[in-house]
Write a structure and sequence with these properties.
The chain is α/β, with parallel strands linked by helices and 292 residues long. It has one domain: Rossmann fold (3-Layer(aba) Sandwich). 29% of the residues lie in helices and 23% in strands. The chain is built from 7 helices and 13 strands. The strands form 2 sheets. Strands 2, 3, 4, 5, 6, 7, 8, 9, 10, 11 and 12 form an 11-stranded mixed beta sheet that branches. Strands 1-13 form a two-stranded antiparallel sheet. Helix 2 packs across helix 5. The two termini are 21 Å apart. The structure holds the ligand CSC[C@H]1O[C@H](OP(=O)(O)O)[C@H](O)[C@@H]1O and adenine. Ligand LNRAV4D5 binds next to strand 6 and helix 5.
Amino acid sequence: MTTETMIGVIGGSGLYEIDGLENATWQAVESPWGTPSDEILTGTLNGVKMAFLPRHGRGHVHSPTTVPYRANIDALKRLGVTDVISVSACGSFREEMAPGDFVVVDQFIDRTFAREKSFFGTGCVAHVSVAYPTCPRLSATCYQAGEAAGINMHNGGTYLAMEGPQFSTLAESKMYRESWGCDVIGMTNMPEAKLAREAELCYASIAMITDYDSWHPEHGEVDVTEIIKTLMGNADKGRDLVTRLPDLLGADRAPCEHGCDRALEFAILTAPDKRDPALMAKLDAVAGRVLM
Ligand SMILES: CSC[C@H]1O[C@H](OP(=O)(O)O)[C@H](O)[C@@H]1O
Ligand SMILES: Nc1ncnc2[nH]cnc12
Protein backbone atom coordinates (compact mmCIF):
# COMPACT_ATOMS: atom_id res chain seq x y z
CA MET A 1 0.00 0.00 0.00
CA THR A 2 1.30 3.49 -0.80
CA THR A 3 0.46 6.87 0.68
CA GLU A 4 1.03 10.31 -0.79
CA THR A 5 4.45 11.84 -0.15
CA MET A 6 4.56 15.26 1.42
CA ILE A 7 8.07 16.63 1.94
CA GLY A 8 8.53 18.92 4.93
CA VAL A 9 11.61 21.10 4.94
CA ILE A 10 12.74 22.81 8.14
CA GLY A 11 15.02 25.63 7.06
CA GLY A 12 17.70 26.74 9.51
CA SER A 13 19.75 29.91 9.82
CA GLY A 14 19.99 31.58 6.40
CA LEU A 15 17.20 29.52 4.81
CA TYR A 16 13.91 31.31 5.42
CA GLU A 17 12.02 30.46 2.20
CA ILE A 18 12.22 28.30 -0.91
CA ASP A 19 11.29 29.26 -4.47
CA GLY A 20 9.56 27.52 -7.29
CA LEU A 21 6.55 25.98 -5.52
CA GLU A 22 3.34 25.88 -7.52
CA ASN A 23 0.32 27.31 -5.68
CA ALA A 24 2.64 28.57 -2.97
CA THR A 25 0.75 29.80 0.11
CA TRP A 26 1.93 30.72 3.59
CA GLN A 27 -0.52 28.96 5.93
CA ALA A 28 -1.01 29.48 9.65
CA VAL A 29 -1.27 26.05 11.26
CA GLU A 30 -2.66 25.77 14.79
CA SER A 31 -1.20 23.18 17.12
CA PRO A 32 -2.19 22.10 20.63
CA TRP A 33 1.56 22.24 21.39
CA GLY A 34 1.77 26.01 20.85
CA THR A 35 2.38 28.34 17.93
CA PRO A 36 4.89 27.07 15.33
CA SER A 37 7.95 29.19 14.53
CA ASP A 38 6.12 30.81 11.61
CA GLU A 39 3.46 30.14 9.00
CA ILE A 40 4.24 27.18 6.77
CA LEU A 41 4.78 27.63 3.03
CA THR A 42 2.89 24.91 1.17
CA GLY A 43 2.67 24.08 -2.53
CA THR A 44 3.74 21.45 -5.02
CA LEU A 45 6.96 20.89 -6.90
CA ASN A 46 7.02 18.53 -9.87
CA GLY A 47 3.76 16.98 -8.70
CA VAL A 48 4.92 16.35 -5.12
CA LYS A 49 3.45 18.18 -2.11
CA MET A 50 5.90 20.31 -0.13
CA ALA A 51 5.78 22.23 3.14
CA PHE A 52 8.52 24.63 4.23
CA LEU A 53 8.92 25.95 7.77
CA PRO A 54 11.66 28.44 8.73
CA ARG A 55 12.91 27.07 12.07
CA HIS A 56 13.73 30.45 13.57
CA GLY A 57 10.83 32.22 11.82
CA ARG A 58 11.17 34.76 9.00
CA GLY A 59 13.42 37.53 10.33
CA HIS A 60 15.12 35.03 12.71
CA VAL A 61 12.93 35.56 15.76
CA HIS A 62 13.49 32.36 17.79
CA SER A 63 16.74 31.44 19.52
CA PRO A 64 17.78 27.75 19.48
CA THR A 65 16.32 27.40 23.00
CA THR A 66 12.98 29.06 22.22
CA VAL A 67 12.24 27.37 18.88
CA PRO A 68 8.84 25.71 19.50
CA TYR A 69 10.05 22.25 18.45
CA ARG A 70 6.90 20.35 19.48
CA ALA A 71 4.55 22.79 17.76
CA ASN A 72 6.69 22.67 14.60
CA ILE A 73 6.74 18.88 14.31
CA ASP A 74 3.05 18.59 15.26
CA ALA A 75 2.08 21.25 12.68
CA LEU A 76 4.00 19.45 9.91
CA LYS A 77 2.38 16.13 10.85
CA ARG A 78 -1.06 17.80 10.98
CA LEU A 79 -0.54 19.12 7.42
CA GLY A 80 0.16 15.59 6.17
CA VAL A 81 3.96 15.71 5.96
CA THR A 82 5.54 12.24 5.68
CA ASP A 83 9.24 13.07 5.34
CA VAL A 84 11.11 15.85 7.15
CA ILE A 85 14.39 17.28 5.91
CA SER A 86 16.23 19.53 8.32
CA VAL A 87 18.71 21.98 6.85
CA SER A 88 21.06 23.55 9.42
CA ALA A 89 24.11 25.76 9.69
CA CYS A 90 26.84 23.86 11.57
CA GLY A 91 30.40 24.12 12.74
CA SER A 92 32.87 21.39 11.72
CA PHE A 93 35.26 19.31 13.81
CA ARG A 94 36.95 17.76 10.77
CA GLU A 95 39.53 19.38 8.50
CA GLU A 96 37.99 17.60 5.50
CA MET A 97 34.46 18.83 6.28
CA ALA A 98 35.19 22.37 5.14
CA PRO A 99 33.00 25.49 5.15
CA GLY A 100 30.68 25.23 2.12
CA ASP A 101 30.51 21.41 2.32
CA PHE A 102 27.33 19.58 3.37
CA VAL A 103 27.21 16.60 5.74
CA VAL A 104 24.31 14.13 5.83
CA VAL A 105 24.17 13.61 9.60
CA ASP A 106 23.34 10.13 10.89
CA GLN A 107 24.02 10.33 14.65
CA PHE A 108 23.58 12.86 17.44
CA ILE A 109 24.88 13.55 20.91
CA ASP A 110 22.25 15.58 22.74
CA ARG A 111 23.70 18.11 25.19
CA THR A 112 20.62 20.36 25.20
CA PHE A 113 18.97 20.80 28.59
CA ALA A 114 16.41 23.62 28.48
CA ARG A 115 13.84 22.24 26.04
CA GLU A 116 10.71 20.09 26.07
CA LYS A 117 11.88 16.82 24.51
CA SER A 118 8.79 14.65 24.21
CA PHE A 119 5.12 14.74 23.26
CA PHE A 120 4.51 12.09 25.92
CA GLY A 121 4.54 12.24 29.73
CA THR A 122 2.26 11.79 32.73
CA GLY A 123 -0.97 10.25 31.51
CA CYS A 124 0.51 8.74 28.37
CA VAL A 125 4.04 7.37 28.65
CA ALA A 126 5.86 6.21 25.52
CA HIS A 127 9.42 5.14 24.78
CA VAL A 128 10.60 5.11 21.16
CA SER A 129 14.04 4.01 19.96
CA VAL A 130 16.37 6.67 18.62
CA ALA A 131 19.37 4.36 18.25
CA TYR A 132 19.26 5.26 14.56
CA PRO A 133 17.75 8.75 14.75
CA THR A 134 17.70 9.51 11.03
CA CYS A 135 15.99 7.65 8.20
CA PRO A 136 18.61 5.87 6.02
CA ARG A 137 16.37 5.98 2.92
CA LEU A 138 15.65 9.70 3.20
CA SER A 139 19.28 10.45 4.08
CA ALA A 140 20.53 8.54 1.02
CA THR A 141 18.13 10.56 -1.16
CA CYS A 142 19.43 13.82 0.31
CA TYR A 143 23.01 12.74 -0.40
CA GLN A 144 22.06 11.89 -3.99
CA ALA A 145 20.30 15.26 -4.42
CA GLY A 146 23.34 17.10 -3.06
CA GLU A 147 25.73 15.27 -5.38
CA ALA A 148 23.47 16.07 -8.34
CA ALA A 149 23.55 19.73 -7.31
CA GLY A 150 27.37 19.65 -7.40
CA ILE A 151 27.74 20.14 -3.63
CA ASN A 152 30.74 18.65 -1.82
CA MET A 153 28.80 16.06 0.20
CA HIS A 154 29.87 13.86 3.15
CA ASN A 155 27.86 10.74 3.89
CA GLY A 156 27.35 10.33 7.64
CA GLY A 157 28.51 12.26 10.65
CA THR A 158 27.80 12.78 14.33
CA TYR A 159 26.14 16.09 15.27
CA LEU A 160 26.73 17.53 18.73
CA ALA A 161 23.58 19.39 19.75
CA MET A 162 24.46 22.12 22.25
CA GLU A 163 22.11 24.43 24.12
CA GLY A 164 23.70 27.71 23.05
CA PRO A 165 23.14 30.50 22.29
CA GLN A 166 26.86 31.10 22.99
CA PHE A 167 29.32 29.07 20.93
CA SER A 168 31.52 26.45 22.66
CA THR A 169 34.58 27.13 24.76
CA LEU A 170 37.88 25.94 23.31
CA ALA A 171 38.01 23.11 25.88
CA GLU A 172 34.49 21.95 24.90
CA SER A 173 35.31 22.17 21.20
CA LYS A 174 38.42 20.01 21.65
CA MET A 175 36.57 17.49 23.84
CA TYR A 176 33.70 17.07 21.34
CA ARG A 177 36.22 16.58 18.53
CA GLU A 178 39.00 14.53 20.16
CA SER A 179 37.28 12.50 22.91
CA TRP A 180 33.68 12.29 21.77
CA GLY A 181 34.36 11.77 18.06
CA CYS A 182 31.81 14.34 16.90
CA ASP A 183 31.96 15.66 13.34
CA VAL A 184 29.70 18.72 13.39
CA ILE A 185 28.08 21.01 15.94
CA GLY A 186 24.82 22.92 15.98
CA MET A 187 22.11 24.06 18.38
CA THR A 188 18.82 22.89 16.92
CA ASN A 189 18.57 19.29 15.70
CA MET A 190 17.71 18.09 19.19
CA PRO A 191 15.01 17.57 20.31
CA GLU A 192 13.71 18.02 16.74
CA ALA A 193 14.95 14.59 15.56
CA LYS A 194 13.56 12.83 18.65
CA LEU A 195 10.18 14.50 18.23
CA ALA A 196 10.04 13.57 14.54
CA ARG A 197 10.60 9.93 15.54
CA GLU A 198 7.80 10.16 18.14
CA ALA A 199 5.56 11.61 15.44
CA GLU A 200 6.41 8.67 13.15
CA LEU A 201 8.02 10.94 10.55
CA CYS A 202 11.08 10.00 8.51
CA TYR A 203 13.79 12.58 9.36
CA ALA A 204 17.03 13.44 7.60
CA SER A 205 19.48 16.17 8.55
CA ILE A 206 21.72 18.16 6.25
CA ALA A 207 24.49 20.09 8.01
CA MET A 208 25.69 23.05 5.93
CA ILE A 209 29.20 23.70 7.21
CA THR A 210 29.82 27.36 8.00
CA ASP A 211 32.95 27.31 10.21
CA TYR A 212 35.51 25.21 12.12
CA ASP A 213 34.09 26.03 15.55
CA SER A 214 37.01 27.08 17.77
CA TRP A 215 39.37 24.05 17.72
CA HIS A 216 41.17 24.80 14.47
CA PRO A 217 44.55 26.49 15.10
CA GLU A 218 44.44 28.33 11.75
CA HIS A 219 40.88 29.58 12.04
CA GLY A 220 40.62 31.02 15.54
CA GLU A 221 37.27 31.49 17.24
CA VAL A 222 33.82 31.36 15.69
CA ASP A 223 32.81 34.65 14.17
CA VAL A 224 29.14 35.13 13.39
CA THR A 225 29.82 37.57 10.52
CA GLU A 226 31.98 34.90 8.82
CA ILE A 227 29.19 32.37 9.42
CA ILE A 228 26.65 34.65 7.80
CA LYS A 229 28.91 35.16 4.75
CA THR A 230 29.29 31.39 4.27
CA LEU A 231 25.58 30.95 4.94
CA MET A 232 24.63 33.18 2.01
CA GLY A 233 26.45 30.82 -0.39
CA ASN A 234 25.21 27.73 1.44
CA ALA A 235 21.58 28.78 1.39
CA ASP A 236 21.49 28.78 -2.44
CA LYS A 237 23.06 25.32 -2.47
CA GLY A 238 20.59 24.17 0.19
CA ARG A 239 17.68 25.39 -1.95
CA ASP A 240 19.14 23.61 -5.00
CA LEU A 241 19.39 20.32 -3.05
CA VAL A 242 15.84 20.63 -1.70
CA THR A 243 14.27 21.30 -5.09
CA ARG A 244 15.76 18.06 -6.43
CA LEU A 245 14.06 15.93 -3.76
CA PRO A 246 10.53 15.66 -5.27
CA ASP A 247 11.79 13.93 -8.43
CA LEU A 248 13.90 11.53 -6.38
CA LEU A 249 11.24 10.70 -3.78
CA GLY A 250 8.18 10.64 -6.06
CA ALA A 251 4.53 11.24 -5.12
CA ASP A 252 3.73 7.65 -4.10
CA ARG A 253 5.29 6.55 -0.88
CA ALA A 254 5.74 2.97 0.29
CA PRO A 255 5.93 2.24 4.04
CA CYS A 256 9.37 3.16 5.39
CA GLU A 257 11.60 0.07 5.20
CA HIS A 258 13.30 1.20 8.41
CA GLY A 259 10.02 1.54 10.32
CA CYS A 260 10.19 5.31 11.04
CA ASP A 261 6.48 5.59 10.19
CA ARG A 262 5.61 2.84 12.72
CA ALA A 263 7.83 3.98 15.61
CA LEU A 264 4.93 4.09 18.08
CA GLU A 265 3.68 0.58 17.30
CA PHE A 266 4.89 -0.91 20.62
CA ALA A 267 6.02 2.27 22.39
CA ILE A 268 3.05 3.29 24.55
CA LEU A 269 3.06 1.83 28.07
CA THR A 270 0.19 3.57 29.85
CA ALA A 271 -2.89 1.35 30.21
CA PRO A 272 -5.89 2.60 28.22
CA ASP A 273 -7.97 3.22 31.36
CA LYS A 274 -5.15 5.26 32.96
CA ARG A 275 -4.58 7.63 30.05
CA ASP A 276 -5.16 11.36 30.56
CA PRO A 277 -7.94 12.51 28.20
CA ALA A 278 -6.47 16.02 27.89
CA LEU A 279 -3.07 14.66 26.78
CA MET A 280 -4.76 12.13 24.50
CA ALA A 281 -6.58 14.98 22.74
CA LYS A 282 -3.27 16.82 22.16
CA LEU A 283 -1.75 13.66 20.69
CA ASP A 284 -4.40 13.40 17.95
CA ALA A 285 -2.03 14.20 15.07
CA VAL A 286 1.23 12.81 16.42
CA ALA A 287 -0.11 9.49 17.72
CA GLY A 288 -3.58 9.26 16.19
CA ARG A 289 -2.56 6.20 14.16
CA VAL A 290 -2.07 4.12 17.30
CA LEU A 291 -4.30 5.89 19.84
CA MET A 292 -7.52 6.83 18.05
C1 LIG B 1 23.96 31.53 12.75
S1 LIG B 1 25.04 30.67 13.78
C2 LIG B 1 24.18 29.79 15.06
C3 LIG B 1 22.81 29.27 14.74
O1 LIG B 1 22.81 28.65 13.43
C4 LIG B 1 22.35 27.32 13.55
O2 LIG B 1 20.94 27.34 13.37
P1 LIG B 1 20.16 26.20 12.53
O3 LIG B 1 20.56 24.89 13.14
O4 LIG B 1 18.71 26.48 12.71
O5 LIG B 1 20.64 26.38 11.11
C5 LIG B 1 22.78 26.92 14.95
O6 LIG B 1 22.14 25.76 15.39
C6 LIG B 1 22.46 28.15 15.72
O7 LIG B 1 21.09 28.24 16.05
N1 LIG C 1 30.35 26.50 15.56
C1 LIG C 1 29.05 26.38 15.75
N2 LIG C 1 28.55 25.94 16.93
C2 LIG C 1 27.22 25.82 17.10
N3 LIG C 1 26.31 26.11 16.18
C3 LIG C 1 26.76 26.56 14.99
N4 LIG C 1 26.09 26.91 13.88
C4 LIG C 1 27.00 27.27 12.96
N5 LIG C 1 28.26 27.16 13.45
C5 LIG C 1 28.13 26.71 14.72
